[in-house]
Amino acid sequence: MGWLTFTFSLQKKFESLFPGKLKVVRMTQQQENLKFLSHFKRKFIIHKGKRKQKTDAAQPSLYHIRTNGSALCTRTIQIGTDSSNLNSEFCFILKVPFESTDNQGIVYTWVGRAADPDEAKLAEDIMNCMFDDTYSKQVINEGEEPENFFWVGIGSQKQYDEDADYMKHARLFRCSNEKGYFSVSEKCSDFCQDDLADDDIMLLDNGQEVYMWVGTQTSQVEIKLSLKACQVYIQHMRSKDTEHPRKLRLVRKGNEPHCFMRCFHAWGAFKTPPS
């Protein structure tokens, strides 16, 4: 439901049912806390689209299983139905609907060759939870995809990432002077594309390059200070991680390269790096 609907209508009803015991916590998508996620027992599913938008059940849909290795932080998120979004280190669920009346379609759990075995078992459990027996279900390993349904259902066979080494290094920092002074703060491990604030500058480290992402509403002062912060960070990481010397790349909003965006597609799949 809408936030205003809850605030001005249902919240009062809940407070009357639980006097003095109700605490309202507002959370944004992909920033859910552990207590909230614990209720879903690792089967937390997020579909695309707006609340009142009608979905086309006749269209294939693709879901990405995303986890950061903890017992709670697991999300199944619907992404664009395109084979270029696959990655050998993850598991995906693909629904391919049929036009027949006796069978709604077939659902695949796609297991990447480098995916964690426990995550593969979890993906199968999520598939069975999401779809009833009116769907045919099949678990397939990477390289064993049926041509007639899987690749046709996902659109076509395209090149996709076969490794996700960036998961071990990916870190996101926010550069801002909104408090009256310039500061650089690291986002939490579950960062996502929504964390890219248009009035700030973001620093993304993927283990090989440090991207300085510039929003359209940032000031020249923030740009100059952020550039210096990037240089200091790169020097610091060079002394700590000699095997992965970083290079600096400038990225403006709307012109993000694939190697930049894939860190957001795979958010939460990496372990929180040491300080």
Describe this structure in words.
With 275 residues, the protein is α/β, with parallel strands linked by helices. The protein has two domains: 120 residues, Severin (3-Layer(aba) Sandwich), CATH 3.40.20; 101 residues, Severin, CATH 3.40.20. Helices cover 25% and strands 23% of the residues. The protein has six helices and eleven strands. A six-stranded mixed sheet has the order 1-3-2-4-5-6, with helices on both faces. A five-stranded mixed sheet has the order 8-7-9-10-11, with helices on one face. A hairpin with a 7-residue loop joins β4 and β5.
List the helices and strands and how they pair.
Elements: H1 3-17, H2 34-38, E1 44-46, E2 61-67, E3 74-79, E4 91-97, E5 105-111, H3 117-130, E6 135-141, H4 147-153, E7 171-176, E8 183-186, E9 201-205, E10 209-214, H5 220-240, E11 247-252, H6 258-265
Parallel strand pairs: 1-3, 5-6, 10-11
Antiparallel strand pairs: 2-3, 2-4, 4-5, 7-8, 7-9, 9-10
State the main characteristics:
275 residues, 6-stranded mixed sheet, 11 strands, 23% strand, Severin, alpha/beta, 5-stranded mixed sheet, single chain, 2 domains
- For the record, the CATH architecture of the largest domain stands as 3-Layer(aba) Sandwich
Oligomer: single chain
Q: Please state how the strands of the largest beta sheet are arranged side by side.
A: 1-3-2-4-5-6
Query: What's the SSE pattern?
Result: HHEEEEEHEHEEEEHEH
**Structural class based on helices, strands and sheet pairing:** alpha/beta
Query: What is the global morphology?
Result: globular
